Amino acid sequence: MRAILVLLIIVVLVAIAAIALGFVNVSQTRTASLPTISVKGGSAPAFNVQTANVSVGVENHVVQTPTVDVKKP
Question: CB under 8 Å to 24, separation ≥6 — which residues?
């Protein structure tokens, strides 16, 4: 499997080098165009969504935190 992957990479690199050095010339002979599509009728889906009421408030609390003393020797 690894040998096939290495061989494929080598082939791609050789193709890129051939195009870059001018050994292979790629030119476009016909322009591309999108297909014509006709859409008639239909409707978008409808949804009824009910969500919970969320109230956000602020409360003040006193939190005791420990103190750390660092003493150098």
Answer: 15, 18
Q: What is the pLDDT of residues 28-50, one digit of tens each?
A: 888 999 999 888 888 888 898 88
Contact 24, 18 (CB under 8 A): yes
Report d(CA 15, CA 21) in Å as an integer.
10
How far apart, in Å, do the first and last CA atoms of the chain sit? 63
- Assess contact for 2 and 9: CB atoms under 8 A: no
Helix, strand, coil content of the chain in percent (nearest 5)? 25, 0, 75
Cα distances from 3 to residues 6, 16, 20, 63, in angstroms, run 5, 20, 26, 65
The pTM of this model reads 0.38
